[in-house]
Amino acid sequence: MISIIKTLRESNEYSQETLAEKLGITRQTYNKYEKTGDIQDLTIIKKLAEIFDVDYTCIIENKMPTEKTYNIVGKKNKDKQEDIRIDIPIENIEKFIQVFLYILKKVGAKPNVGQTVLYKLLYFIDFDYYELYETQLMGLKYIKNTFGPTPVDFAKITKKMADNEEIEIIKTKYFNHEMTKYLPLVEPDLSLLSAQELAHIDKVLEKYSDKTANELSNYSHKDIPWIAAKDKDIIEYEAVFYRNSDTSVREYDGEDD
């Protein structure tokens, strides 16, 4: 298997040490990236794309570019910003932004993690937390769509984040399917999240982030909140307390005694 970054490094006459220094990592870490092609950190992918002046997809998909095509969707247009109306309380939006940045930092570079997988990760973070603790984490609204729960105003919020240069939105392919991926440009502000919330998010990511969009969509179709909602309607949080064993995350032992 060819290593795209090795090929690009050698064609640009960089040593491993020099390139590692430019990336802010050790030579040993860079050498691992070059040997395995497995780069989980989207910040590193961004830096490599900038250094070699190629599209992100070349690094992610480990393929040579046909030409120099450093191309990003969602770059800030300072002359054409618009006031985006978002029907979510401001505190929920800010918490969503930090959770979203945290998710991207942790698992965003995985090849399967595109927009559809992110929808489901956000849904299970919110709804599992509500079932466990009977209080909201982000408290986003989700509607019932064909492929599973979809967070309302996701596109508007992420567009605003791109305008504010908090993320960049890139287009790529995964098994010949179009995929939208999100690149974090800033660190998440974890002061807005409790230790309990962070532990919960980590658990959801560990449980679901390696699944494909199709697997997560099929799994979400087993969830009582999604089943109970009408098509295109808001999914009710209270329905989590009627979940069956397929998707429930709470132990109810003894409550019927």
Brief overview:
This protein has 257 residues and is mainly α. 46% of the residues lie in helices and 9% in strands. It has eleven helices and four strands; from the N terminus they run αααααααββαββααα.
Question: How are the secondary structure elements laid out?
Answer:
Blueprint: H1 4-11, H2 16-23, H3 27-36, H4 42-52, H5 56-61, H6 90-107, H7 115-133, E1 142-145, E2 148-151, H8 154-163, E3 167-174, E4 177-184, H9 195-208, H10 213-220, H11 224-228
Antiparallel strand pairs: 1-2, 3-4
Helix pairs in contact: 2-3, 7-9
Give a written overview of the molecule.
With 257 residues, the protein is mostly helical. It folds into two domains: 4-61, lambda repressor-like DNA-binding domains (434 Repressor (Amino-terminal Domain), Orthogonal Bundle), CATH 1.10.260; 90-242, no CATH class. Helix content is 46%, strand content 9%. The protein contains eleven helices and four strands. The chain has helices at residues 4-11, 16-23, 27-36, 42-52, 56-61, 90-107, 115-133, 154-163, 195-208, 213-220, 224-228; strands at 142-145, 148-151, 167-174, 177-184. Strands 1-2 form a two-stranded antiparallel ribbon. β3 (167-174) and β4 form a beta hairpin. α2 (16-23) crosses α3 (27-36) and α7 packs across α9 (195-208). The longest helix is centred in the middle third of the chain and has 19 residues, at 115-133. The radius of gyration is 20 Å and the shape is elongated. The N and C termini lie far apart (60 Å). The model is unreliable at 67-87 (pLDDT under 50).
